[in-house]
Structure formats: structure tokens, C-alpha cells
Description:
Blueprint: E1 3-5, E2 11-13, E3 24-29, H1 38-50, E4 55-60, H2 65-73, E5 77-80, E6 93-99, H3 106-115, E7 120-124, E8 135-138, E9 154-157, H4 166-171, E10 184-188, H5 195-208, E11 212-216, H6 225-230, E12 236-240, H7 247-253, E13 256-260, H8 263-271, E14 275-279, H9 282-293, E15 298-302, H10 308-320, H11 322-335, H12 340-365
Parallel strand pairs: 3-4, 3-6, 4-5, 6-7, 7-8, 8-9, 10-11, 10-13, 11-12, 13-14, 14-15
Antiparallel strand pairs: 1-2
Helix pairs in contact: 1-12, 5-10, 8-11
Amino acid sequence: MCVKWNHSGAKTLTLAQENRFGKRLLIRTAAGPAIGFGHLKRSLVVARHIQMHACPLFLLDPADIWAKEQVMLHGFEFAHFDRRRPWPAQSGIAAVLVDTRQRSGLHRLICEAHRHGVPVASIHDLGLLPLPSDVTIDGSIRPGRAAASGRRAAEFSGTDYLVLDEAYSEFRYREKRISPRIHRVAINLGGGDSSRYFRGILSGLSAAGAALQVVGFPGYCSWGQEELSRADWGTIQFRWLHPHEVAAKAILAADLVISAGGLSAYEALCLGTPLCALAFDRHQEMTVAALAHAGAAAVLHRGRILDPSLVAASFRELDADRARRQTLSLKGRGIVDGNGAKRVTRILRAMMRDGRKSVARRLRKSPESVASLAGAP
Length: 377
């Protein structure tokens, strides 16, 4: 039976999460202001997809309060990750999924999985953090080699394997109308402290002088969101996305999305909403540059200091150029189809069904033969 932890730290049994399948998917992930929340968001999507076939068990750092809260909110179980003894006591573990940039303890966890004959899949951004996994998945637009040197792995790369919330694949097939002028703007800068960027963007949009309805995505951390909502932004009507609103619906309704270069950028592309992207760090710079090169995003900014006058100029340019916004919309939808979570889930189900020896045999025969694990979306 699965175990859920309440906020006081006490264990509670959850019948809805009873492990009636006899199988568990072990998920090692992490979240927080320093590493972001994209790893956790992806892991929760995969857990929701896999729960009809296995019981997800999250491995979380004891101090990772953000991940614990979200895992509990979604009704999943977790155990504390011990870097010295990373293999949990629970039985029936059929596969391991790693999605985190926190390196400590990962190699030991993978070695323990292999010692138990359990296959390991790892999700990577831009090929970062090579690991000796059996399967590597990189859903970024600029995938890199993620398998540790000296070990063969089945590699699934490209935006076909980008894991997004289920709502994006659903809303993607709704009509996307490109308005003659921009009236509605969505600002999605990820889950961390984005106060510096939010203030600069709102100041720039205000300076542009257009009458706009602007919805902001507040993220997971508290950094002064209430102060921004009380400020006077001139002709802008600004509000925060309500917790019960569907994020995908708000993005689809917008005429423009201003986004960081993480998962939020791909969400806008999937729905065909014209994207104006900015980069917080060098990794996001790589993504934003690749999206701009593909004609799917306008580049708003790179770096730590955001000049509101540049925001105003970029907005005016896009507002006056409907043809470019139409091109951004079409190019974006051509890059992301929103079905990556289904493909990744099929890979994990095949790994749990066949076990590590079967995956290894396929690899020895032909690395390409493992592509059949993904199946059709």
C-alpha cells in the first residue's frame, strides 16, 4: 500500500494509491528556487500518466519542501533520498526515472538499480548531466548527448519527447486566432523568484501605452506578488492567474506570451500563442537562441538586467506586425505537438514490463531497435 505524508510528517495510508499493480516506478527529482521547478512538473506529469499501470514513488531530499508539497497535493507517495543508501526499502520497484540536475547520489542510485536488475531512464535538458542510464530522454530543441561515456544507452531526443501537462495536448487542437492587434498578454517566468523581471516587463508594457489585459503566472515561491498586483500600471489591467484556472486555457486565450526559456516557452509553442522569450541563464540562452533560429520565438532579453524601454520597443514591433505573429504561431505548433508525455510513458511501461535484461539485449542487437518502445503518440 502506498504511503502519503501529511504536513506534520505523519504517515497516512491512501486507498486510492494502493499498489494493486505490484509495480512501482521510482522517481528521483527535486525542485526549488536554485534549480527551478521544471524537473518536478515533468515528473508529476509522468506520474499521472503511469499511475494506471504502476504506483509512483518519489525520492525527495529531506529539505525539499516545494517538491514535498506538490507531491502530497497530487496524492502521490514519497520517501526521503539518502545519498549514502539511495535504494528505498519498498518492494516491487520495476523501473527508475531520474529527472534532476542535483548530481549527488545519482550514480550510486543507478548502480543499486542495476544491481537489482532494474532499468533506469533519465530525462535531460540540452544533454546536461550525463548518466550511466539504460535510456536517456532529452526533449529540448537542442538535445545533447546525455549517456555517460563507455555505456550504451537508448537515446530518445527532440521535442517529440518533451513532457508537458496533459492539458496542452488537448488545447493544442483548438483554433488559435491571431488578432490584428495585441490585447491580452500572459507572463510566465517559471516557478522561482522572478520579481526583477516581472517588474521590468510590466513597466515596459505600461510604457508602450496600449490598453492591455495582462495575466501573470505567480510560480511556487513567495517573492512579493501581492505588491505587484496592487501597483498602478497605467493602461494595463494586471492580475495573477487564479489557482483554479487552467493554465493552458489562459495561454491559448492570450495574444502574446512573454516567457522564460524553460518549459513555459514550450507550453506557448504547443498552443500556437506567439512567444516573446527571455533567458535567465546560459542554458535558457541556448534554448531561446534555438527557438529564434527556428522562427518560433522573438527574443526579448538575455541577462540579469531587463530594461523596460526594450520591452516597450519589442512589444510595439510585435503589436504592429500581425504577419510575424502568425508565423511565430505556426512555427511553434510545428515544433511541439504536446504528446511527449504519452511517448515517454510508453517507454517506461515497456521498461517495467521487459526488465533491464530485455532492454540490454535490444541495445546489443541494435540501439535503433529500442525506438519501438516509444510507439505512436
